Amino acid sequence: MITFARTDTSLVARWWWTVDRVTLLLILLLILAGIVLTMSASPAVANRIGAPTYHFVFRQAIFVIPAVIAMVGLSLLTPEQVRSVGAMGFGLFFVLLALVPIAGTEIKGARQWIGAGPIALQPSEFIRPFFCIVVAWALADARIRRNLMGYALTVVALLGVIGLIVMQPDFGMTMLVAGTWAVQVFVAGLPWLLVAIVLGGAVAGLAGGYLMLDHVASRIDRFLDPSTGDSYQITTSLSAIQNGGLIGRGPGEGLVKAVLPDAHTDFIFSVTAEEFGVLACLLMISAFAGIIIRGYMRMMQERDLFVVLAVSGLLGSFGLQAFINMGVAVHLMPTTGMTLPLISYGGSSLVATACGLGMTLALTRRRYVEGSGR
């Protein structure tokens, strides 16, 4: 067990006494749950593609190491350092995001990755937490200086990011980035005129996606009326959840992973429900809710507007992603291809989520809330 004396003034000791250790524990438990559920859901997928049985499990376990290092390392930063890292990270991954249509790797009809094999990165995953920091910085500056330039900069950043993501195409990620931005500008107190413009833009974007992107129109149509197309994935997901009951069929005894190609990513919540039951799902949801609620509770004691806006965005992005993934599994939303943060298989998703949570832990450390300045 890690222990430090209260009088210890080392960097690690001060971090230990000021970081939200309950949130840190919940994050680590979700990462561990992700390994267990990947071990349960992925062997059938690996066997279908001719890979070793635990191919995805080993890969996910390897990515846990840089994810935890990144999370803890970023949680050591001050708000000023978080701003600097956020700006640099946004610039780096915006460039990589712009390179995806040119030099990206195409998988299942979408060009979303840079590189190949074990070194492939999904820039759209990584840019989200840094986008939150840049938007928070610009909005805080706009409020303090009482000008619209900061608002305009956030709109430019938003349009640039979602424009590149739409080209991949990835409509689910586009809506997630736009939703995160909406959370931040709402917290910042957006003028009513701009609220109307934002809402109009959201409606126009949704209508445009429906009219111009066939796969988006198909998913929305199947969500509204399953008889209009192939609803096999959702039907199978709902059946698995029902079959799981309260305590599940037992580890490894589920059937959904053998018939759904994305059981270890998009529909890992269904695997959880079938093999471990509704109780396990409720525990998982409670862990997600605990992270978000504790973060917002600490944020509400904060006087630094940048910290308030950054935490709102980071936790908003984390919560929206989890809600979208689980909502798809229970047919509350159209299918989006969104992973369940910290749980689903995917190195980019795991490391990027850990980066966002690391910055959240840094910004909600008790020493900043109490204003000690150390």
Give a topology summary.
Layout lengths: L10 H8 L2 H28 L6 H21 L3 H25 L1 E3 L2 E4 L9 H23 L3 H18 L4 H18 L3 H21 L1 H11 L7 H13 L23 H32 L5 H25 L17 H17 L2 H4 L5
Antiparallel strand pairs: 1-2
Helix pairs in contact: 2-3, 2-11, 3-13, 4-5, 5-6, 5-7, 5-12, 5-13, 6-7, 7-8, 7-12, 8-9, 10-11, 11-12, 12-13
Protein name: Probable peptidoglycan glycosyltransferase FtsW
GO biological process, one term: cell division
EC number: 2.4.99.28
Walk me through this protein's architecture.
It holds the Pfam family FTSW_RODA_SPOVE. Its main location: membrane. The protein is mostly helical and 374 residues long. The chain has 14 helices and 2 strands. The chain has one domain. It has helices spanning 11-18, 21-48, 55-75, 79-103, 123-145, 149-166, 171-188, 192-212, 214-224, 232-244, 268-299, 305-329, 347-363, 366-369; strands at 105-107, 110-113. Helix 8 (192-212) crosses helix 9 (214-224). It is globular and about 60 Å long. The two termini are 25 Å apart.
Number of helices: 14
Structural class: mainly alpha
User: If you average the pLDDT, what whole number results?
Assistant: 84
Q: Please tell me how large the radius of gyration is.
A: 21 Å
β-sheet strand percentage: under 5%
Task: Kindly report the spatial arrangement of strands forming the biggest sheet.
Answer: 1-2
Net shape: globular
Number of strands: 2
The secondary-structure element order is HHHHEEHHHHHHHHHH
Low-confidence stretches: 368-374
Residues in helix, %: over 70%
Gap between N and C termini: 25 Å
Can you tell me the number of structural domains? 1
Largest sheet: 2 strands, antiparallel
Protein name: Probable peptidoglycan glycosyltransferase FtsW
Subcellular location: Membrane
Pfam family, one: FTSW_RODA_SPOVE
GO biological process, one term: cell division
